[in-house]
TrEMBL record:
Keywords: Leucine-rich repeat, Nucleus, Repeat. Residues 1-100 form the PIF1/LRR1 pleckstrin homology domain. SMART domains: LRR_TYP (SM00369). GO terms for cellular component: cytoplasm. Gene3D superfamilies: Ribonuclease Inhibitor. Pfam families: LRR_1, PH_LRR1. The keyword Phosphoprotein does not apply. This is PIF1/LRR1 pleckstrin homology domain-containing protein. Signal peptide: none annotated.
Length: 420
């Protein structure tokens, strides 16, 4: 077994002196059947390692602070104390290995380490003289490449590609330092809710089965505050998505969104909340129109190629198409929630004010703008192909036809219906 830790070696006669702790690896085992069980201490300055015999050579083990991940192993020869700082669980496992390897009787493992009459009862295995640099990046392309002792908690970048995982490996939830996660070409249908607690910057979910998910609960990981603040790249191409996840609009710092090669027929109106979005890829879908809120985005690059848009010109009049025969709008009396939302807008109250109830915030967050005047609209009636618009002129647009698109959206009043 190898233990990633910090160690300090001091002389037993000078225990009151505090030593300097260095990043180290402790390996326990024996070279062959005739050799004595030993511990090898490997540091960056000594990669070949220093060997300390264990058999009949333990002066004592001090484990009063084992729950804090601290202990001291004292040797007879040389007369030194090996002070260890490590993860408490891993440190306990390391000491248990020592206990099981050193046994004075046939009745079982020795319960009091430090006795000089301990004898070796079995070999643990050979040591690997390898410096314990912190593992920050890991690529896994086969099931056999998964670490037998779990994913290193020091990982910052993890790629699990082409393995065919049916579920996200649960060990990922323990990777608090993870910033880049790539799960390309698996068979994953949803992510664990706790993924939202990770501060991931780049999340690549290409070629999975997220389109099979039909429950909003399967997207609850997007409601985690940590991932909402940290995520700036989300790639979900080739997932057979029929609808874009509405909660993705809560990732307020998202810069790049790729939903290409899916089966999308609509884009959520809440996309207007992605104020930092610069790159949007919606190519190879089934889109016929766009939400009117797309006009509020300031994109640098947008790809709308290979969809079901038709060619439109700016001079096309809405009065000449089927929209002219639409029945008069039936404006219902608004609910109390809608009236409250209108009041918040009229008073220009700060959106994140603690005085605004959560349900009102949700209404304001998801309500689209009127496709004509741009005012916030609380009417739930969405009219298809209500207008023809061009996207932001600064954006580099990739499309099969012109840069003018039909948009869907609500109308807030009769005058907006009659306007051209």
């Amino acid at each position: 077994m190898k233990l990633l830790c910090e160690t300090s070696v001091i002389r037993s006669s000078n225990r009151e002196i505090k030593g300097r702790f260095l990043k180290s690896t402790l390996a326990i085992g024996k070279k062959d059947e005739k050799s004595k069980l030993c511990i090898i201490l490997i540091t960056s300055s000594n990669k070949s390692g220093i060997k300390y015999d264990l058999t009949n050579n333990l002066a004592g083990i001090f484990r009063k602070f084992i729950d804090e991940g601290k202990c001291t192993i004292s040797f007879v020869l040389p007369e030194v104390d090996l002070q260890i700082k490590a993860d408490s669980i891993q440190l306990k496992a390391f000491l248990n290995i020592m206990k099981n390897e050193l046994c004075p009787t046939k009745d079982g493992p020795n319960k009091e380490l430090g006795r000089n009459d301990n004898k070796l009862i079995r070999a643990f295995g050979s040591t690997n003289k390898m410096i314990a640099d912190e593992v920050t990046k890991l690529n896994i392309t086969k099931r056999s490449e998964f670490p037998t002792k779990g994913l290193p908690r020091t990982l910052k970048e993890l790629h699990i590609t082409g393995v065919g995982c049916l579920q996200m490996p649960i060990g990922i939830l323990n990777l608090s330092k993870l910033t880049h996660l790539d799960l390309t070409s698996n068979k994953i249908e949803k992510l664990h809710k706790a993924v939202g607690n990770l501060s991931i910057n780049q999340l690549i979910l290409t070629d999975n089965l997220f389109g099979k998910s039909t429950s909003l609960k399967d997207w609850e990981w997007l409601n985690g505050r940590n991932i909402q603040l940290s995520l700036h790249t989300l790639i979900m191409s080739r997932n057979k998505l029929k609808m874009a996840p509405v909660s993705v609009a809560k990732c307020e710092n998202l810069v790049c969104l790729d939903l290409s090669f899916n089966e999308l027929s609509a884009v959520p109106f809440s996309i207007k909340q992605l104020r930092h979005l610069k790159t949007l890829n919606l190519s190879n879908n089934e889109l016929k129109s766009l939400p009117c809120t797309m006009r509020s985005l300031y994109l640098d690059l947008i790809d709308l190629s290979t969809n079901q848009f038709h060619s439109y010109t700016q001079s096309l009049e809405l009065s000449q198409n089927s929209l002219a025969s639409i029945t008069t709008l039936n404006f219902k009396f608004p609910t109390l929630f809608e009236l409250s939302s209108r009041c918040v807008m009229r008073q220009q109250m700060p959106f994140m004010s603690l005085n605004i109830p959560h349900i009102i915030k949700e209404i304001l967050y998801h309500s689209p703008n009127c496709s004509k005047c741009g005012s916030l609209c609380f009417d739930r009636t969405i009219y298809k192909n209500i207008n023809i618009v061009s996207l932001n002129a600064k954006a580099r647009i990739t499309t099969d036809n012109s840069n003018y698109f039909l948009v869907d959206g609500p109308l807030c009043k009769i005058s907006c219906l009659n306007s051209k």
